[in-house]
Amino acid sequence: MPVVDTAPVGLPGRADCVMPNNEVVVLEAEGGVATVTLNRPEARNALSRELLRELTGVMDECERRDDVRVVIITGADPAFCAGLDLRELATSSALLRADSDSNPSSKPPRPGPFPGRSKPLIGAVNGPAVTGGLELALACDFLIASERARFADTHARVGVQPAWGLSVLLPEAVGLRRAREMSASGNFVDAATALAWGLVNHVVAHEDLLSTARSIAADIAGNDPAGVGRLLATYAEGSLLSAGEALRLELEVAAEWLRDGHGRPEEVARRKQAIIERGSSQAG
Question: Is residue 17 part of a domain?
Fold first, then answer.
C-alpha cells in the first residue's frame, strides 16, 4: 500500500483528478493530516474484498503513525463509494460475512469498517455514497460533502441487512423517521437535503472539497491530540449509554483526566497565548 508524503498535483475530489497509481487505496500524509482515497473509480469505488483488506491496512497504518493526527477519507471521482461490490456478492456471501465480522473484539461492540480507530476521521464525500458507502460515511466523526454528493441506503433493494451500525448511526444523524424512509424506500438524498437533515456538516463546491476538509483537519491537528482523542472517545462511549449514564461518564472522565496529570495550570498557561490568538482570528 503506497504512502505519498506530499500531495500529488491531481487530487481526489476534483474533476481533473488523476490518481498517482493503480492501487485500490491510496494514502497521502502531510502536515499531520492523512488523506485516504478509495481508488476504484471504474467501479465507483465499490467495496471488493481486496479494497476492504487494503483499507483496513491503511487505516491501521494511520493509527500507528505518530506523524498522523487526523485522517480524511474520500473517493476517486466520480463516486465516494457505491457499497459492496455486487459482482463479488452475486457469486459468494463471503463478502457479507467479512463485513459483519470486521470488528469482533471491540469492547463495547461498535461494528463498523474501521476497528480500533482513535484518531479523528473526516469523511470528504465527493459523490454518491450508497449502502456500504453510506455506512463508511456514517462511521466518520463528521462529514463534508461536495455539491455532487448523494446518499442512499439500498440494503432492502439488494435484499441484505446492514452490519456496520447503520440502523443506529443513520437515525442518530438524521432522526428515526427520516432513517426509516431512507432505508425502506432506497431513495437518494441530495447534498442540500443531507445538510438540512444534519447528515453532513458542510456542503461546498466540488473543487473545494479537499481543501475545506484539510483546512478543518489542520485546525484539529493543531489542538492537543490526547485531548481531542479523549473527547471523541467520550462522545462514542456516551452514545451507547442513557443520558444520565453519559453525564456520569463525562464526570468520571474529567476526574480521571486531572488525576492523570492533564490540564495542569502550567500546561494551560503555556497554551494560553496560542488559544487567544486563534480565538481572536476566528471571532473577527
Answer: yes
Same domain, 73 and 40: yes
Exposure string over 240-273, b if 16+ CB within 10 A, otherwise e: eeeeeeeeeeeeebeeebeeeeeeeeeeeeeeee
Q: Is residue 228 part of a domain?
A: no
Cα separation, 5 vs 74, in Å, equals 17
Nearest to 48 by CA among 1, 89, 6: 89
Q: Is residue 236 part of a domain?
A: no
- The domain of 252 spans 241-283
Query: Do 74 and 170 belong to one domain?
Result: yes
Residue 27 and residue 34 in contact, taking contact as beta carbons nearer than 8 Å: yes
Laid out side by side, the sheet with 150-152 consists of 128-130, 150-152, 189-190
Query: 75 and 212 in one domain?
Result: yes
Residues 205/177, Cβ–Cβ less than 8 Å? no
Residues 65 and 136 in one domain: yes
Q: Do residue 24 and residue 139 come from a single domain?
A: yes
pTM equals: 0.84
Tens of pLDDT along the chain (284 residues) come to: 333 333 332 333 333 344 445 799 999 999 999 999 999 999 999 999 999 999 999 999 999 999 999 999 999 999 999 999 988 866 655 555 544 444 444 444 456 888 788 999 999 999 999 999 999 999 999 999 999 999 999 999 989 999 999 999 999 999 999 999 999 999 999 999 999 999 999 999 999 999 999 999 999 999 999 999 999 999 999 998 999 999 999 999 999 999 988 877 776 676 666 666 666 666 66
The answer as to whether 95 is a domain residue is yes
